[in-house]
Design a protein that fits this description.
alpha/beta, Immunoglobulin-like, Esterase (chains A, B), Esterase-like (chains A, B), about 25% strand, homodimer, 17 strands, signal (chains A, B), disordered N terminus, Rossmann fold, about 350 residues, eight-stranded mixed beta sheet, Mycobacterial_A85_antigen (chains A, B)
């Protein structure tokens, strides 16, 4: 009862009372033991509230109760982490009660995790945890200070004798440098695979791949001339190509091909996830591609391209794979079920982390 | 032209085409050299779009153009960092085009920075940058793994001989462990003050202060029994009370008083910003408060309470200050202009950082 009174006082006097109309505190989403999910939204004025998400085949209507709380319970849903959003009348928005945000430049969505009975590779488990650091570097290429995220593994010693291999990991089209951790859970995937002995200890660098209005090709320069030197002067890392990998999703998957295959002396591992390649830079690099395949095949320890059969880029990616095969470049293709989603993308990363730096 | 075509293709084939109805890429907010700000929002169906923000006395209507882009230019606005939101018909939401989010459990707002001509203390400046690390710790008190953010200063050596003082810094009511960096820019404020020699090098620990449904008092236990031991076993820090400070805003300002004044053997610096004290825990600690003032005054090197004259808690905070004075506890009050805002809160922090660990 005291708690209820406190909650009411908090509601009335809440710290942003100056912006008023503060909604009541709701618990949304609530994930139930049977893998169903309840979503809630408060609105006195809305005519229609829907929830859409990559676990639903169609948006579901939410029902208003007498206290203007709209809700719906869906599922059971297959254990995974999914983006979702509410549509209130004509407006799509992130769930106001959920702090887990899909970091993106063009929309705001929320994230829900259905843990399931057996911990998934991307779940927070009771294992030693690495650390994500938010770092700033000076990009001479782009003339600005930019942010990158750096994962260091459990037990990392910045000044010890052990030196680490580095994976450079690039987000999708309108994502940001935070999307690989906030949505892709790259840190938990690495923690879990390292603790199981399935991946070796590595540093994962997650830069911000959007350089607009500069030409996209400037990101290749930024990686090679600014990001790699920053990492190599600030972290104890191995600096030969066999200890450097590059991977990325969607637009970042296209950037991975551009950066990696024009720098096979620098990256022995290139892993492209559902690459988006309808870009000037890809056109320039690969429309008249005449590689020394023997040389490249001897430089690369691993070159993979992953895609799902429901991905809207599936046909395009198959053409990319065929093109590389036609040029006699050794490429391993991973064709799986699923679409152009972060659910798939997390699996691509989990597969990759178990393969790189091992030969 | 090629860029325009690429932009159109990206829009048509965008990575989340599966969720369709993707809006065009907008640049919002745009901050102009004369400190005016242009906001944009895309909607074909909205009847009315408004922008509200802590730089406006009233919400401003946005005007729709023939391509369904709603916009308005406001200001000039006094240089600072402000939260703002759009209201589309009845729905308040964060700006979909802006990745700078006000991290909060109960609403989604966006952040806009008006840099001004002279760099402000919270701005990204060309100085050496510290690092923010996202860490996980096991809370025995709360029985879960929780996240905290840890700022380490420029030049920080984790295994060097130098040992650092630590500030524990707590967010407001429905904020999260990210709000002090994402909105409060604690890291840039520290970087700038350290580089100017105005603050000494320190570690800043930003925990997550919300422990509901556990009683709020459990956060005091969590800080003392779980967070401090985690920090002291993972960072090279000084562990006497003269090298430990606690500060917090709003609900976190109340927690600061509860945690600090019941542990004056552990914290020699207590800085409370616009404290919200209508809580059971505060009531329990201070309604029959009978302190040994001489002892406490000799333990504390600095005890400050800050508030703005337009703060909705102003009267309440004045009573808190009077209560401590009445009990002969030496308290320094900072009464400034302004309301219960993060603009004020950043100033409280900037003042505090220049005072702690100096005597």
């Amino acid at each position: 009862m005291k708690y209820v009174i406190f909650a009411i006082i908090t509601f009335l006097l809440g710290p942003v009372a100056s912006m008023a109309q503060r909604p009541p505190s709701l618990s949304s989403p609530e994930v139930h033991a049977d893998n169903r999910i309840t979503f809630k939204y408060f609105s006195k004025k809305a005519q229609k509230v829907m929830v859409s998400g990559e676990f639903l085949t169609a948006p579901q209507a939410m029902i208003r109760d007498t206290s203007s709380i709209w809700s719906v319970t869906v599922g059971p849903v297959k254990p995974d982490i999914y983006p979702y959003a509410f549509t209130v009348d004509s407006v799509q928005l992130a769930d106001p009660s959920n702090t887990q945000i899909f970091t993106n430049e063009r929309f705001k969505r929320s994230i829900v995790e259905i843990p399931g009975k057996t911990p998934l590779v991307h779940s927070l488990q009771n294992v030693p945890h690495g650390k994500i650091s938010y770092r700033y570097y000076q990009s001479k290429t782009l003339g600005t200070t930019r942010q990158m995220l750096v994962y260091t593994p459990p037990g990392f010693k910045p000044n010890g004798t052990k030196k680490y291999p580095v994976l450079y990991l690039i987000h999708g089209g309108s994502d940001t440098e935070e999307t690989w951790t906030k949505v892709g859970r790259a840190n938990f995937i690495a923690d879990n695979l390292i603790s199981q002995g399935k991946a070796i200890e590595m540093i994962i660098v997650m830069p911000y791949g959007n350089v607009r209005p500069a030409p996209m090709a400037d990101f290749t320069k930024d990686v090679v001339s600014d990001i790699i030197p920053f990492v190599e002067s600030n972290y104890p890392v191995l600096t030969d190509s066999k200890h450097r990998a590059i991977a990325g999703f969607s637009v970042g998957g296209g950037q991975t091909l551009n950066i990696g295959l024009t720098n096979t002396d620098k990256f022995a591992y290139i892993c492209s996830y559902a690459p988006y390649t309808a870009t000037e830079e890809f056109q320039k690099n690969f429309s008249n591609y005449a590689p020394d395949a023997n040389k490249i095949n001897s430089q690369l320890k691993l070159f993979t391209i992953s895609v799902g059969t429901d991905d809207f880029l599936y046909e395009s990616v198959k053409k990319n794979i065929a093109m590389f095969e036609d040029k006699k470049i050794r490429v391993k293709s991973y064709i799986v079920l699923g679409g152009h989603t972060w659910m798939n993308c997390k699996q691509y990363l989990a597969t990759t982390l178990q393969e790189i730096f091992k030969n």
